[in-house]
């Protein structure tokens, strides 16, 4: 170890504020009633998200595309799904705004999937385009939520170091 | 000398904390409050900001403690959260615009500190720009390598190296100025060498 490392390590530690734990305890307290309602709504939204997520993960039955464009859209859709699987664990705490947006998009995807199960060949392409578009938005929302103040801090503080 | 973040956490405490038990959470807080506050203070150089960074660090850690899988010591996991929080604070404050100079910085060797007392080193450290000081601290005290610092900053290894080089150069300059500017006071201070 270098002299500089040793010398820096020898510098005294700082004493943390005496009220640190009480401040933290307050922040960890259960939210007041109004906030609890919001939390309950979010929890409900989360359960809907989970349910919709299950539906969304069920692949539409139009799995044998003769149309190469549809095949490409399906591949794109699958790639976005895989990307989402990687992104989801990065968002631990959802901001209400992002949660609502995500819920809406997931609901739309579920609706598209439902329609795809019964779609004609002609309508399938449009539906797959919609699905890809919705998944793109869903990925963007997850990325924004993951970078927001309510995201967990383990991800690098990347982003705008270069201004 | 080991880092304050090397404190060992027993499994019982972790189990309690994972379950949201206040006793377990407080044990973790007490075990690492000085470590977290010191790192935050070294990086932000502001007591109030350091207190905020500490609060956010523990909040984030406790709320996501289920993600801690025990593959590294708990303190190291907490340290990465703290460093990230402090970097986010610096970025939010935009207090380091002047840091974004061209990366063409000459490779500065570490300053010689054998005959510099702690007071002078502390003073010189306080005069470093925030990001080079943070990189210096993470590298020399917390033991991060350039790749790890680059990951924390979301930048390249070259960026980390240039910031460290910049910190070395500035520190060398500050310590030299201090040595030249206060010759009368120097003998009154214990040389750093004697403290090592």
Automatic annotation (TrEMBL), chain A:
Superkingdom of this protein's organism: Bacteria
Protein's name in the database: Uncharacterized protein
Organism of provenance: Sinimarinibacterium flocculans
Highest classification ranks of the organism: Bacteria, Pseudomonadati, Pseudomonadota, Gammaproteobacteria, Nevskiales
From TrEMBL, chain B:
All copies of domain RNA polymerase sigma-70 region, residue ranges: 28-95
Keyword Transcription regulation: yes
Sorted UniProt keywords: Sigma factor, Transcription, Transcription regulation
GO MF annotation terms: DNA binding; sigma factor activity
Residue ranges of every copy of the RNA polymerase sigma factor 70 region 4 type domain listed in the record: 120-167
Pfam families assigned to the protein according to its UniProt record, in alphabetical order: Sigma70_r2, Sigma70_r4_2
Family note: Belongs to the sigma-70 factor family. ECF subfamily.
Protein name in UniProt: RNA polymerase sigma-70 factor (ECF subfamily)
């Amino acid at each position: 170890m270098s002299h500089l490392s040793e010398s820096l390590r020898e510098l005294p530690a700082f004493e943390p504020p005496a009220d640190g734990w009480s401040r933290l305890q307050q922040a960890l307290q259960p939210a007041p009633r109004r906030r609890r309602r919001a939390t309950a709504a979010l929890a409900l939204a989360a359960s809907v998200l989970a349910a919709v997520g299950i539906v969304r993960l069920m692949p539409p039955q139009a799995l044998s595309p003769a149309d190469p464009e549809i095949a490409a859209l399906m591949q794109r859709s699958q790639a976005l799904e895989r990307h989402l699987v990687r992104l989801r664990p990065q968002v631990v705490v959802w901001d209400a705004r992002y949660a609502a947006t995500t819920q809406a998009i997931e609901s739309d995807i579920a609706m598209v999937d439902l329609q795809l199960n019964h779609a004609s060949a002609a309508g399938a392409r449009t539906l797959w385009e919609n699905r890809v578009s919705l998944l793109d938005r869903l990925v963007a929302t997850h990325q924004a939520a993951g970078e927001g103040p309510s995201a967990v801090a383990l991800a690098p503080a990347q982003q705008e170091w270069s201004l | 000398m080991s880092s304050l973040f090397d404190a060992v956490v027993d499994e019982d405490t972790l189990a309690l904390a994972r379950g949201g038990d206040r006793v377990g959470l407080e044990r973790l807080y007490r075990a690492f409050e000085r470590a977290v506050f010191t790192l935050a203070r070294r990086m932000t150089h502001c007591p109030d900001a350091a207190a905020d960074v500490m609060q956010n660090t523990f909040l984030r850690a406790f709320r996501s403690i289920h993600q801690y899988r025990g593959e590294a010591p708990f303190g190291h996991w907490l340290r990465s959260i703290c460093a990230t929080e402090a970097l986010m604070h610096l970025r939010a404050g935009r207090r380091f615009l002047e840091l974004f100079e061209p990366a063409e910085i000459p490779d500065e060797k570490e300053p010689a500190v054998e005959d510099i007392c702690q007071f002078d080193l502390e003073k010189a450290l306080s005069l470093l720009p925030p990001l080079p000081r943070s990189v210096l601290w993470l590298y020399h005290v917390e033991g991060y390598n350039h790749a790890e610092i680059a990951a924390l900053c979301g930048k390249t290894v070259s960026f980390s190296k240039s910031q460290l080089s910049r910190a070395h150069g500035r520190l060398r300059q500050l310590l030299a100025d201090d040595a030249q500017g206060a010759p009368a006071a120097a003998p009154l201070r214990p040389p750093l060498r004697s403290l090592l």
